[in-house]
Amino acid sequence: MVACLSDPVSARAQETSHSQVDLTSAINITFENDPQIERSRQQLEIARGGLEIAASAFEPLLSASGSWIDSRLATGPDSADESEVLGFGLGLDRLLRGGTLLQPRFDIERDPGTVADATVNVGTLSLALTQPLLRGRGRTATAADERASRLDVAAAERDLHQLIEGRVRSVARQYWRTVAAQDRLAILQATEDSSRQLLATTRLLVDADQTPRADLVLIEADLTAKEIDRIAAESALFAARQDLGREMGLDAQALQALAPPSDALPTITASADLPTLPAAQRFVDLATERRHDLAALRLRREATTALRTAARSGLLPALDLTFVPSYSGAIEGSSVDDFFSSTVRNSPGLSSELRLQLGLPLRNRAAEGRWLQATARDRTSELLVEELLKGLAADVPTAVDAVERSRQQVRLAAASVRLFEKAVANEEKKLRAEASTLIDVITQRDRLTAARQRMITARLAYAQALIDLRFQTATLTAVADPYRLGDLETVPDPRGGAP
Fold first, then answer.
1. How far is CA 102 from CA 53, 59, 92, 461, 495, in A?
2. Could you give the CA distance from residue 169 to residue 48 in angstroms, rounded to a whole number?
């Protein structure tokens, strides 16, 4: 059973248009309707939005400014000097992931001076480079939020894959329960029909005075018991169908139109020599390699470690070194060309500035709090990983053991059915030869019915054990494409690879 479910369009319409629904279609409909999967998709989008926000800290910021200053200075009782200064600035701020801040800037200022003075245009080009020496130094401190957000996106993708695996498991298990309920009902219906036929035959024999009338009471009582069992099986099948529809996410109308399951319970050959399953440790290694929830926890552990490293940087004093090389040019003139060409005409004046700035909080409680939180989150993530690994070490061998024992039960149950079929046939021959009684035949038939029921139970346990083992080893779906199902009716390959 290998199916690609990446395009579940009109799956519901296909399901309702057929008289039966197979397991692949049931899972396909679940992908289309399940609100849990949609919520997980939205959580993934939230994580992607968080990454965009974190990455925005390293986007270049362009700034522009313009100014006009009108000043008047009194020079006497009836006179004053008037000055109008016009300025324009253009700058760019860019924080690098290594912590360096780049700030190139272009400024122009026009000062007309007094009435007797000439208009002077001064242009300056500068580049400020600020490098943290302690707090905020390096990518581990500056880009920690972006790295943690990127890891959170990867973890959210794994969360979605894990949820899909869980939904496949739930639907498949309920699908097989519904198939088993359907098979049990078919067995009980056949048993009831056989008992009713026996009653009709006995009545003919009673009317012909070949059988005591007292035998009718026994057969009628047996038929009543069979009818009770059949009604109980019908109720169980109805409940199983309702549960399957709920697992598939169907509404009331679609649930009423849900077709009966078409797939048969997986079985095995009746050979006494069953192939030995690989050692449980190989499946544990496969689970450790493929489990999406484990991968998500490890990614989040990596994210908390990155944030913890950045929080440690926050405990340090802020010591920044700034270097500003620049050059300026000046030109006289009042035209627009004079205003904008002041930095490229005449010889520029070169200059540089070197600053060392220290910031030392007296308490720094905010940084201490962030450090405590980051340390606790990192430890929590570590414990979650350890807990899940311990769980896998116990759950995977249990799942392997369930597959091994359930397939042995299937083989023995099949042999039991064959033997009871022979016993019933022999007892009926003895009855015809008057070497047995009617109650002996009914007893053997009831035993055959019970054996057939045990066979259904064993096959159901085997089907669900296969599903559980594939869930534990993350082989229900493909790692790269969670909508592509693996073979849900076989034991997964412990060597890994696509299912």
1. 20, 12, 8, 66, 51
2. 28
Query: Crossing angle for the helix pair 438-472 and 365-432, nearest 10 degrees?
Result: 160
pLDDT per residue as tens digits for the range 258-295? 999 999 998 886 554 566 788 899 999 999 999 999 99
> Predicted confidence band at 380 (pLDDT cuts at 50, 70, 90)?
very high
Average pLDDT, whole number, for the chain? 87
C-beta neighbour count of 182 within 10 angstroms: 18
Cα–Cα dist 498/288, whole Å: 15
What 8-state DSSP symbol labels residue 249?
Answer: T
CB within 8 Å of 389: residues ≥ 6 apart: 288, 294
Taking the C-alpha atoms of residue 266 and residue 403, their distance in angstroms, rounded to an integer, is: 12
Query: Average of pLDDT values for 301-312?
Result: 94
Q: Which residue has the higher pLDDT, 80 or 332?
A: 332
Q: Is the model more confident about 121 or about 465? A: 465
Listing from the earlier edge strand, what are the strands of the sheet with 318-332?
A: 61-76, 79-95, 101-111, 120-132, 318-332, 349-359
Distance CA 101, CA 296 (A): 34
Residue 455 near residue 414, CB atoms below 8 Å: yes
Backbone dihedral angles phi then psi of residue 167, each to the nearest 5 degrees: -70, -40
List of residues 6+ apart from 425 with CB closer than 8 A: none
Burial 428-447 (b: 16+ CB within 10 A, else e): eeeeeeeebebeebbebbbb
Q: pLDDT above 70 covers what percent of the chain? A: 88
Q: Is residue 141 within 8 Å of 135, Cβ to Cβ?
A: yes
The whole-angstrom separation of Cα 87 and Cα 107 is 7
Q: How many CA atoms lie within 13 A of 400 on its CB side?
A: 22
Residue of 300, 238, 177, 267 lying closest to 490 (CA atoms)? 267
Q: Contact 15/258 with Cβ under 8 angstroms? A: yes
**How high is the pLDDT of residue 74?**
52
